[in-house]
Amino acid sequence: MKRLMWMQRIPATSGVLTRAAAVCTTALVVLVGCGSPGGEPAGDAASTDEQAATESSVLLEAAREAQTTIRTESLRPHIAVLSDDAMEGRAPGTPGDDKAQEYLIEQMQQLGLEPGGPDGQWRQSFDIVSIESTVPETWAFTKDGDNLTLAWWDDFIASSGVQAESATLDGAEVVFVGYGIDAPEYEWNDFGDTDLSGKVLLIVNNDPDWDPELFEGDRRLYYGRWTYKYEAAAARGAAGAIIIHTRPSAGYPFGVVQSSWTGPQFELPAGDEPRLQVAAWTSEDATRRLLEFAGQDYDTLVEQAKSRDFTPVPLGVSTSLAIETTLERTQTANVLGKLAGSDPEIGDEIVLYGAHFDHLGVGRADDAGDTIYNGALDNAAGSAAVLAVAQSFLDLPEAPRRSVVFAFWGAEESGLLGSKHFGENPTVAPGKIAANLNIDGGNIWGVTDDVVFIGHGKSDLDAVVERHAAAQERHVVGDQFPDRGYFYRSDQLNLARIGVPAVYLDTGTEFRDRPAGWGKEQLEAWEGASYHQPSDELEDSWVFDGMIADTRLLFLIGVDLAEQTALPRWTPGDEFEAARTAALARVE
């Protein structure tokens, strides 16, 4: 892999429209609109909203010029630096993490942004705990004096669920709990009244997806996320939880579990929340063998779990496991820059762009001997896009009405920790955050006719996205892989939880001049080979046209949102509507 100097500077591109010329244009429009043909005052003929709309259209017109600075030259160099071997995979709390933060700060300083963090700082620092688990090579399960042994790496991956020097299961009974979901609003409870204290829960991944009348059909909810399942098990006093991995239910191969859940794992410092001793995954093949050993059939049990009448099934199997851990308390940070708004009424409100800059660091070698998980697409590309958008904002003739904050989240790969910390400690009141535009990944295959909007239908942001997509002669569609729960897998989730509506665009699948189905094939092939693997590197084969189109689209959407008077809202009845209502009430 080619090595670059991480301190390489990327010069900001000059604006395509001078501030002076555009300000004159704005002034001309305002002068023409403020008087009658006879020179008499216009009086109340134009409302405040109409004036704002006129000014907004002028700035949007300037934005259509400023977007042209978003091109390969404003994206690729940033990706090259952030994903270089010198960054060592940008794992939280490592020298590579520090280097990445410094690079992002330097770039924003060069652009002319001001610090957007607390107390006028670029960083919003927060403590994290590194937990590195030493797991036995085998895991034994016992029934009636017989033993079944699973092999670490091939059959199971396990880690400590507690921030302590060791985590222990001691003769704990294994209980199959179906999907491990308690969702009163869907009249679903896999746990019932069963006492699960001290047990190890074996859990089906995903949520009920076979019937559109149950949950949301094939659209995965948070109930289908591994984080929920561990949380729900801990809340019931379980000692451990094992999630059954299958490619369809996870949306990624077991190799992603192997690369993501080994090595140092990072968490926010523990509070008084319930916690598991052991959090684990097993492969489908290993799970089938375990259930056969217990005298059960995998397919039969999974079928039983597809019912509201399901109750937990004790397997008559017990297990013990001792994990030794190395703990280290360290820090990472979110990096935030800001462009101050120009409107005295809404200038203290913000449009929040965000992309995580971390990745997995250095880990197990792949077949080529590569140990650095560079994270070029995931998410050096998203970080580069945010920097390119910031540059285009600064190329506008004047600042938009609302302020714009450019956030680079730390420790996303460890469980969305940076955005979680921001959500719990926002630098701006949530009721004053107009919207979050999250960028996680990028299109490296070409321009698409479709714009994939993760969360389409959840808020009134649909209309804004659709308007600007149409200007690119593209159409907006919802999640093309709804079963994978992408809305709950990226940083906009933690903003949504405090009420902030979100725009999260994913790579489309309808590639121009390509046959039907080609796009999905490329996405699934990349996911299978490079997602959370050392092979996620910047390649000469990358085609930037699609990333440019998507980044320009996000820029125009952000300008529009920064100019609108009204604050976006969630769709009535959406799961995050109540949080938005409460957030807005607190700032009235």
Fill in the keyword field for this structure:
588 residues; alpha/beta; 17-stranded mixed β-sheet; two-stranded antiparallel ribbon; 21 strands; globular; disordered N terminus
General form: globular
Distance between the termini: 54 Å
Specify the oligomeric state: single chain
Structural class: alpha/beta
Tell me the number of strands.
Answer: 21
Number of helices: 16
User: What's the average pLDDT?
Assistant: 91
Write a short abstract of this structure.
This protein is an alpha/beta fold. The chain is 32% helix and 22% strand. The chain contains 16 helices and 21 strands.
Write the layout of secondary structure elements.
Elements: H1 19-34, H2 48-66, H3 72-82, H4 95-111, E1 114-115, E2 123-134, E3 138-143, E4 146-151, E5 156-160, E6 166-176, E7 182-183, E8 188-189, E9 200-204, H5 226-235, E10 240-244, H6 247-250, H7 254-260, E11 265-267, E12 278-282, H8 284-293, H9 298-304, E13 313-339, E14 350-356, E15 361-362, E16 372-373, H10 376-394, E17 403-409, H11 417-424, E18 433-438, E19 450-454, H12 461-471, E20 475-477, H13 492-496, E21 502-506, H14 518-530, H15 545-563, H16 577-586
Parallel strand pairs: 6-9, 9-10, 10-12, 14-17, 14-18, 18-21, 19-20
Antiparallel strand pairs: 1-13, 2-11, 2-13, 3-4, 3-13, 5-12, 6-13, 7-8, 13-17, 15-16, 19-21
